[in-house]
Amino acid sequence: MGLYPGSVDSPTGATVYGPMGDHGHDSYKLILHTTETKGMPSFGGGDTAPHYVYDPTSRVWTMWAEFWDGRVGTMKGHSTNHANDDAFQVEILAYSDTRYDPWVGDFTDDNYQDLADFYAWAMTEYPIDRDVTPTPNGGWIYGSSASTRGTESQYNTFSGLSCHGWVYGNSHYDVGVLDLQRIHDLATGDNNMTIDYDKIRTIVHEEVVAVLGGDAIEMPYDGRIGNQGIVNSVWWSKLVDERALELLWNAGQTNTD
């Protein structure tokens, strides 16, 4: 499939095992990890390497192994501690541990957009579903039997965006408080629709004209409607806002940020 656009290839001489192939799976999952380091680990020369590494400081993506095309990077003995041939593995050069920097809780809007862009690309390149395991309040919890841990059955049937803290069979809690739902929403557009008020005003004007007649001319900022006189600007703003919410609701969106 080739490199993610704008990324760089893995260090020269790294050993990456393969082939991975599709192993008969119909769908896959994108699993995020944190390295709990500030710099790039050696990943055992490649035998515990992820497919990609993201550096939130430089905002550079490094590919250690392609998901298909004869190389694996399945992070053997390091990631899920069980067969993970249906997982697209991404390590983030950051800490889930609040005591160290860079901490995932300090990620910027740009960092979130970078992760979302990668997720959106992955969904177009591979059969990864539009789904997510939302980060619990307070973040993922350490321990193999943590309440935030998914089950083997859930893991095997899931396809979408998740993280090591949700995967069964290990005790890690990465990616901490990193907001997976936010990454998912940025990548898919869910709950991310903004209001084009100029467009809404035009729609409302057309509806007002339909009621008051063709001579009605809307002046959007002071509420003036032609020969109908001055319309209360508070009423006008309320009408525009209510119509905007209705249009967003009908589109399956309710976020008005």
The helical percent reads 25-40%
User: What count of helical segments does DSSP give?
Assistant: 5
Rg measurement, Å: 24 Å
Element pattern in H and E: EEEEEHHEHHEEH
What is the oligomer described by this structure?
single chain
Using the alpha-carbon principal axes, give the shape. Answer: globular
Average of pLDDT: 74
CATH-defined architecture of the largest domain: 3-Layer(aba) Sandwich
**What strand line-up does the widest sheet have?**
1-4-3-5-2-6
Largest sheet features: 6 strands, mixed
* Integer count of domains: 2
First CA to last CA: what distance?
37 Å
Low-confidence stretches: 69-83, 215-234, 251-257
Please provide a written account of the structure.
By secondary structure, this protein is of the alpha/beta class. It has helices at residues 109-125, 152-157, 180-188, 197-212, 233-250, and strands at 8-9, 29-34, 52-55, 60-63, 87-92, 161-163, 218-219, 224-225. The strands form two sheets. The protein has a six-stranded mixed β-sheet with strand order 1-4-3-5-2-6, covered by helices on one side. It has a two-stranded antiparallel ribbon with strand order 7-8. Strand 7 and strand 8 form a beta hairpin. The longest helix has 18 residues, at 233-250. The chain is globular. The two termini are 37 Å apart. Residues 69-83, 215-234 and 251-257 have low confidence and may be disordered.
